[in-house]
Design brief:
Number of strands: 4
Number of helices: 5
Structural class: mainly alpha
Helix content: 55-70%
Largest sheet: 2 strands, antiparallel
Amino acid sequence: MNPIPLLQAQEETDDAFGSVRDFFDSSIWLLFRNVSLFFIAIFWLASAFWVYKDAKRRIEDPWLLAMAVALGIFPPFLGPIIYMLFRPPEYLEDVRERELEIKAMEESLLGERCPVCRADVDPSYLACPVCTTKLKQACRGCKAPLEPLWQICPYCETPVETPRAVENF
């Protein structure tokens, strides 16, 4: 075998990869690499911050909040995806709002209550029997309790008088 063609082939290979090697040794490549690493680090920190902000709105327990943030930080870029798959489905504000709505519905089903002392009152009461707060106005004709928005008594068709403000002289 003649070693000269092998040396020529290796020189041609060195020349072909030499330009690639020169590119990776250039300052353009170093700048591109450093800027890329900077943006990757910024994106990683931003995704971890997003996990923190979202978990703070969804998780009340500080220990679980810390674990969610740790998951958002490590493993990088995979942690926020895992968090998104297993995070609580509702915000804490939505849960509290729903609980208040349920409580209001339960109270409305229980019946009427006095606005002052919260005692149970019958819809036909004109005044609270516990604290004597006036609950409804009585009809002039039949003395039936009237709702505040009624313009006429539905029982005897007597027009409802609206209370006038007391004038001070």
